[in-house]
# Entry
Amino acid sequence: MKSETATPTGEFTLRLSATRRGARLARLLAVQQLHEWGLTGSALDAVELVVAELASNAVWHGWVPGRDFEVRMVRGHDHVRVELSDARGESRPVPVRKPDEGGYGLLLVAALATAWGVRDRPVGKTVWATVPVVRP
# Structure
């Protein structure tokens, strides 16, 4: 009898509709995956906030009719890389220095992540952030 050993890949990818409900599902399903990876406490909270903000931005600023957005998380030894991809490459995130009625989200991402940025895709863009975590 052949035995198989399940090896976790440390990667989570999900496509969702570019709606408020899709953004909410991205956050909830990301938290579920983080629990499965054994993350808890402030590490989980930090990644959850980054996913929530980037998913919200993908829906709000990256929406294109009929196109989904994608959330991807990659677990590293001491970090989680969060990537949100949408279909609008011309709409690039820019943190504002003095937020008025909004604009705090990217300041939050910058505070929680060791690095973040934007890269182009054939269709759209990917906004990524590297969030440090302490493994239990």
